[in-house]
Structures are given as structure tokens and as C-alpha cells.
Design brief:
Length: 458
């Protein structure tokens, strides 16, 4: 009996030990599960905060660009603010001037300039921001219009380029994430956000894909991943993002139409102000220019019947004795030009002009139509002004205004369609031009100058 009781006691102790071990295992597993769930919930919460902050910043920057002309007198829409790189009492305010023309810049997001709170990511860090040199507001690029491309490139975490060459990135907004090895985010230069303005202390270097988010000179930025050598999260804004928003403005198309009308009125005014009864119009400027952003390169060219709208009309003046040295200025255009002058300065590369034989520069008087231009096979017009709307399928438009990359600007078919484009090759002042409702294959907008030098935009 004592042996049996001893055996039963041992078995009872073993059973109790197993129960204790089982309870400990259950508690441990539960703790791990709760910890995992808490960690997952925390990561999700951080990611949600990061995503929300990035989205809010993106919306604010697009809004800034699409209303720039409203908030900055005498300017057109499209520009983005400089980053904040000063800190101190002006923390959150965009720099008034950031570097050289057409050179991209990086710094902290100018949240105060954008009327935003201090947006922070899920790790409590304020956001950073890179702006393309072609879209920053000071110093400004040569031409700001829907063909102005970004200079930046965005890559997925695996190194895949995310944007095509004709729709590059104009801005990148970054969440710097948690501090990485070798980064030092101490300092008081940013009293509200905390930390300093050394970019490499916040944005990471992907040594695998050789893309350094802290290096603005390369203009390349890569999306990070949790636990990776890059933990930066980013969203980007493309050229098309900006212009899709601007084109939704109810006043945008009417402003462009008014630009074409005012250009036609200014050309007609040249004929109306020549000495005596000489009402001839100036020669067009060539299609190919050395700098498409510089007004002074738009020189009229003798015996050219179709080309660009001229600014300098000295060649025409030798025939007409007109005293205007330059057209497309407030001084030499009818009332109303002042409101479109900023648009002319930025959109002149979208305008084209054809003059008729009868109204070419001469010393004749009282010109009237004998050999003039037609539109849609009818009418007799002294001249036609054509505005090239946004690019259609197959059209290639350059962003650069000088050099080799500007070559596509010299091909009129990249801007105008149908006979509006084909007439240019051998124009002699008696061509038939076209107007029609906008479609997927045609979207030119015309204004005509009749033999009385009256302007209509059908």
C-alpha cells in the first residue's frame, strides 16, 4: 500500500506540473498574440496617419498651383512654392527664392505657406518636399504652360520607374519615417517640428538601386518599405496632375480663348495704326527659334506667310513705315491686353499666325481681299491666328525652350492638326484653314481678321 500511495502521489505531481506548464504556454502564446496584434494595430495606425498626412499635403500643393494666378497678381497658374529651408521664427514658410532657374530643390514642406497644420507622419516627423526647378515659383522657368514638364523621377520600391518621359514628376512629398542608423535628428533649427535641416538625417539612400532620396541633384526618388534600408514613404505630383486640376477651372478655357482674341486684336491694331491708309499686317515669325521663351526671338521674317506670332516687327516696318518696334505689349495693343500679358509671356509658343497675300507688309494703301485666306472653304480673311490646344495622341511636345531637347517645337504638326498644319510647308497667303468642334483628332482654336481688320473667333 505505501508503494501504491507513493506511485499515485508521483503521478499526481506530474499531472499538476503538466497543467502548470500548459497554463504557462497558453499565457505565453496569448501574450505573444496580444503583442503581435498590438504591434500590427500600431503599425496600421502609423501607416494611416502617414498616408493621411501625405494625401493632405499633395492636395494642398495642387490647390496652390491651380490658384497661383489668383493669389499672385500678374502671374499665371501652375507654380509651386519653394521648400522651407530656414527654420527658426519662419519655420513652415516657403523660401522667397530657392536656388537658380530650372534647378530642383528639396527641404521641409512649407506647411504654413500652404495654410496647413504641422502635418506629421506616423512616427511623429514633419514632412519633407522636393520641387522641380521647372515648377518652383522663384526663380521661374521660361514658359509655364501645360507642356512644361517636371524634372523629377519616382521609382517603386523594386526600382521600377513610375512615370513616363512626357509626364514627369513636378513635386515629391516625403514621410521620413523612423530614424535610421547613422541619422541624427537632434537640434533646434525647427522649433515646431523639431530637429534640423540636414536632408540626409531624414531621407534614405537606397544603395541597392543607387537612388538617394536625400540627393536632389539626381532628381530620382524611391519608395521605401518597412524594415528596408529605405523607410521613406512618398507621394508625388506629375505634370498632368497639375494641369488636369487647372483645366477643371471654369474660367481656364475662356482665358485661353481671350488670349487668342487679344493677339488677333493686337495684330489688327498694327494695320490700323500704320501711316496713311496702309493697313497691311506684319510678317509671321519662323517656326524654329533659338529660345522659345524669349519674346525678342520672335522676329518677323520677310516673305513668310505662316509661322509664329511676331513680337519684333522691324522687318515689316521697313515696308509699312509703322513705328511699333515690338508687338504684344500693353503700349502697342488695344485696351484689354494687360490682363492677358502674363499669359502671352507663358503661352506664346502655343500660338501660330498666317497672313494673306493682300495684307502682307507693303507700302500699298487701302488693301482689300483679292487673294486672301479662307476658313472651312469660305470667307476672305486678311489673317488667321491659331491657338494649339493640349496635345493629342501622337503629338510630341518639348518642355525645354532651348537646345537639342527643344527640337520638337519646330514641327508644327506637334501643335496644329489637319490643313492648319499642312498649310505651313508651302504657305503663300491664299490657304484654306480649318475650325471645328474639339475632338480626339482636332482641337485647334481660331480667330480671324477680316479685310476691315475686325476680329472674330468662330
Amino acid at each position: 500500500m505505501p508503494l501504491l500511495r507513493h506511485t499515485l502521489s508521483i503521478e499526481h505531481q506530474r499531472g499538476a506540473s503538466l497543467m502548470v506548464m500548459l497554463v504557462i504556454m497558453v499565457i505565453g502564446i496569448a501574450a505573444l498574440l496580444v503583442g503581435s496584434l498590438n504591434s500590427s494595430a500600431l503599425n496600421n495606425s502609423r501607416q494611416q496617419q502617414t498616408s493621411a498626412a501625405l494625401a493632405q499635403a499633395k492636395d494642398a500643393l495642387i490647390g496652390y498651383a491651380m490658384t497661383y494666378g489668383d493669389t499672385h497678381s500678374g502671374q499665371v497658374h501652375g507654380y509651386l512654392p519653394c521648400p522651407d529651408n530656414a527654420g527658426g521664427a519662419t519655420e513652415g514658410t516657403a523660401e522667397l527664392n530657392c536656388g537658380s532657374k530650372d534647378i530642383s530643390v528639396i527641404g521641409r514642406l512649407p506647411w504654413a505657406t500652404l495654410d496647413l497644420p504641422t502635418l506629421r507622419d506616423g512616427n511623429g516627423e514633419c514632412l519633407w518636399y522636393a520641387a522641380s526647378g521647372t515648377y518652383k515659383n522663384n526663380p521661374k522657368t521660361g514658359l509655364m504652360n501645360w507642356d512644361t514638364n517636371g524634372q523629377l523621377q519616382a521609382y517603386a520600391a523594386d526600382g521600377t520607374l513610375l512615370t513616363p518621359a512626357d509626364n514627369q514628376v513636378v513635386a515629391v512629398i516625403f514621410s521620413p519615417g523612423a530614424t535610421q542608423t547613422g541619422q541624427n535628428r537632434s537640434g533646434s533649427a525647427a522649433p515646431v517640428c523639431g530637429g534640423n535641416y540636414t536632408v540626409s538625417n531624414y531621407l534614405d539612400n537606397d544603395t541597392v538601386h543607387t537612388i538617394n532620396n536625400a540627393d536632389i541633384l539626381t532628381g530620382k526618388f524611391i519608395q521605401g518599405s518597412n524594415g528596408g534600408i529605405v523607410n521613406d514613404q512618398m507621394v508625388f505630383i506629375t505634370r498632368q496632375d497639375i494641369w488636369s486640376a487647372i483645366q477643371k477651372r471654369t474660367d481656364f478655357q475662356s482665358t485661353l480663348k481671350m488670349l487668342g482674341q487679344q493677339v488677333a486684336l493686337c495684330l489688327a491694331n498694327y494695320g490700323n495704326t500704320s501711316p496713311g491708309s496702309n493697313n497691311s499686317l506684319p510678317w509671321p515669325a519662323p517656326l524654329v527659334l533659338s529660345d522659345y521663351s524669349d519674346n525678342t526671338k520672335y522676329d518677323d521674317s520677310a516673305y513668310l506667310y505662316a509661322g509664329r506670332v511676331p513680337y519684333n516687327v522691324a522687318t515689316s516696318n521697313t515696308k509699312t513705315s509703322n513705328s511699333f518696334s515690338n508687338l504684344m505689349t500693353t503700349a502697342n495693343c488695344p485696351a484689354g491686353w494687360a490682363s492677358v500679358d502674363p499669359w502671352w509671356n507663358n503661352w506664346k509658343d502655343q500660338l501660330f499666325y498666317a497672313v494673306s497675300q493682300e495684307f502682307r507688309p507693303s507700302n500699298d494703301t487701302n488693301q482689300s481681299c483679292g487673294t486672301c485666306l479662307e476658313v472651312n472653304g469660305s470667307g476672305q480673311y486678311a489673317a488667321v491666328v491659331m491657338f494649339a490646344s493640349s496635345r493629342l495622341a501622337g503629338q510630341v511636345r518639348a518642355s525645354d525652350t532651348t537646345g537639342t531637347n527643344s527640337i520638337p517645337r519646330g514641327t508644327v504638326g506637334n501643335y496644329l492638326e489637319d490643313n492648319n498644319a499642312s498649310n505651313f510647308a508651302s504657305a503663300n497667303g491664299n490657304e484654306n484653314y480649318k475650325t471645328a468642334p474639339a475632338s480626339s483628332t482636332f482641337n485647334d482654336v481660331l480667330c480671324v481678321i477680316d479685310e476691315n481688320l475686325s476680329v472674330t473667333c468662330p
